[in-house]
Input
Amino acid sequence: MTFIFENLGTIITFSAVCAVIIFALIKIKKDRKKGCGGVCSECHGGCCEMNKKENQP
Amino acid sequence: MKIALAGNPNCGKTLLFNILTGSNQYVGNWPGVTVEKKEGIYKKDPDITVVDLPGVYSLSPYTPEEIVARRFLTEERPDAILNVVDGTNLERNLYLSTQLSELGIPTVIAVNMMDMVKKAGDSIDLQYLSKKFGCAAVEISALKNIGIDLAMETVIEKAKNGCVIPQHRFSGEVEHALAHIEEAAIHSMPDEQQRWYAIKIFERDSSVIEKLKIPQDVLSHIEFDIRHAEEEFDDDAESIITNERYNYITAITEKCFHKKNKDGLSQSYKIDRILTNKYLALPIFALIMLIVYYLSISGIGGFFSKFLETGIFGEGFSLFGKFIPGVPILLEKFLTSINCALWLKELIIDGILAGVGGILSFTPQMFMLFFFLSILEDCGYMSRIAFLMDKLFRHFGLSGQSFIPILVGTGCSVPGIMASRTIKNESDRRMTIITTSFIPCGAKLPVIWLLASTFFLKKSWIVLSAYLVGIASVLLSGLILKKTKLFSQEITPFVMELPNYHMPTAKNVLRSSGERTLSFVKKAGTVILVSSAVLWTMQRLGFENGSFGLVESIDNSVLAKLGSILAVIFKPLGFGRWESVVASLTGLIAKENIVSTFSVILGSVSELPRLFTPLSACTFLIFNLLCAPCVAAMNAIRKEMNSGKWTAFAIFYQCTFAYCVSLMIYQFGSALSGDFNPLSLTFAVLILVFGIYFEFFKKKKEIIK
Output
C-alpha cells in the first residue's frame, strides 16, 4: 500500500502513457484494415474501395 | 433510390459528388482520378444514394473504367442518371450522352462549367438539347455550387416517373437492322432496354452476345442484316454506329451551341501558348516550383515551423513581453511535481514528445506546400505538366501516362501507386509502380527539410533538387528497365484532355491542403508516437556489466547492437553509424520516422553533424528517398502487382538502385576531396562502367539485330 502511495504519480502517468499507446495501436490497426494503412491523405477511402479483391487488376 | 453520376473524365463528377454527399473524395484537375465507383448518401435526402462513376468517353468494354461504369449502368440499373457534361467541350461530351440515353434509364443532362461558357460569351440552348435527347437538361456549375439543387430535383422527379423509351434515331439502314435484331433476339426484354442491346448486338459486342445466349441460327439471321448495313455504308458495324452518333451530335451542337467568337482563341489557349511553349515551359515550371518551395520552406511555412520547433516544442517563446515556456519544460515541471519516476519522465519527454514534436514542427511547412500545390492542381496547371513530361518521358522509355501517378505520389505514394491502374500497357504499368515512390512523398519532406536545413545554406534548392533526383531516377530507371526483356514492350501513346484554366476556389484548395496536413498530423499521433516509445525503450535497454537492464552507455543498448550489425553495409555510402542505419530502418514503417528517430536517439536534431558530413548527409538523403518505400506503399505495390515475385523484384530494384546511386555519389565525392577508400571507389567505378555498357553497348547490339 505504501509503495502504491509513494509511486502514485508514476503509476498514474504510466497508465496514461499505456492508454495513449494502446489507443494509437488500435487506431493504426483500424486504419490498416481500411486498406491503405490510413496514411493515404489523397484517397479518403478510395484506395480501400480499390483494394477490394474484385477490383484488383 | 439510386442516382448515378456519369460523364467524361474531368468533367466535375467527383466535385459534384462531394457537394451532393458532403464527402471528401479526392478531386484532381486531371482525368482518371476516379478509377472505381463510389457511393454516398444525398445530404438532403437519406433515402437517395448517389454513385460517382469513373469518367468514361463511351460505354465500350475496353478500359477498366468503362467496364466498371458499363457494368453498373446495365446490370445494376440505377433509378436515374445525372449525366454531367462539360459545357466547354459539349460536342465530345455528348457522345457518351447518346449512349446513356439508349439505356432506357431516366437521364438528366447537367451541363457543367456553365460559368465558364458564359464568361467566354457563348451560350447553349438547353431546351433544344433537351428536346433532341428526350431528357431534361439543366445548367450547373459544380465549382461555384450553382444549379445543383435544381439538377437534383429534376433527376429525382424523373426517377419517380420510371423508365423512358430511347428517342434518338440513326439513319434508315441502321434502324432497319436494329428493328430486325430487336424482333429476332430481344423482343422478350422490357421495351426500354431493347435499344441498348440491339445496338450492342449490331456492333457485335461479344460480351453482350455471350450474356444474352442468342441461338446460333438467330445470330446468323442477324449477321445477314448487319452485313447488309456494312455493305451499304462501306464500313464496319462499330464504325457505322460511331459515325452515326457523331453526325447526330454535330447536327445538335450546330443548332444549340452558340459561340461568340468563332475564330478567336480561348483564354486557356492563350495562356497555354506561354506556359506550354516549347522552350519556355520547363524553365517556367522550374521557376514556379522554386517559388513554391521557397515560400513553403523558408518563407511563411519556415517561420511558423521554427516557432513550433523552438517555441512550442522547445525552450519557449515570448508573447507580449511575457516568456511562455515550451511544452517539454511545462511537462517536466508537471511530472516532477507529481513525483514521476525519472525513467518514465525520460520516456515521455525524450522519447514520445521529442519524436512527435520533431514531426509536428514541420506541419506549417507541409500545409504551405500542400496549399500551393493544391492551387496549381485546381487551376489546371499540373495537368499541363503531365502533357509536357510526355515528350521528356518518351525519350527515356516511359509515357506521359506515368507522370499522373507520380504527380499523385507527391502527396502519398499509396494512391500514386494505385493511380497506375489507368495505364493500359502492362509493362508500362509495372514500371510506373516500381518508380512512383522515387518521387518524394509528403512523408519524405520532413527528412529532406531536416537535412537541408542542417547541412546546406540554400535549403529551397536542396528540396527542389530532391524532386529533380526523384524525376532523374524515374527516367534513368526507364532507360535501365526498358533494356530488359521484362519491360521491352512498345510505349503506348498518351492521350490526355487538358482542362481549361480557371481560378482555384478557396474551399477546394483549403479542403485539399487541410486534409493532407491533417493526415500528416494524424500519423504523428499514431505511428510516430508508438515508434518513438519503442525506439526510446530499445535504446535505453541492453546488456551492460553482464546484466540486462537500463544502460548507462547508449552504445550498449539493444538498438545500437542491432544497428551495428547492418552498419557495415552502409559504410561505403558514408553513413556506417548504427544511428543512421536504425533511422533508415524505422523509415520503412513511415518515412517521417527518420526525423523522430534522430530526435529520440540524439536528443535533438541539432546534434546531426555528429553523424554526418554534408556529403554523407546527401547520400543518406538520396538513399532514403530512393530505397524501398514505407510498409503501406510496399503493400500497395503488392496489391497492384498482384504477384509476390513482382513485388520482390520491385523492392529489390528500388533498394539496389538506391544503394548504387548513393555509393557512386559518396565515393566520387570523396575522391574529389582526396579522402577515399580504394576498394569502395573501385566498386563505384565498376557500377558506373557497367551502367554505361548496359545503356550504350546493349543498344548497339539491338540495332545490329
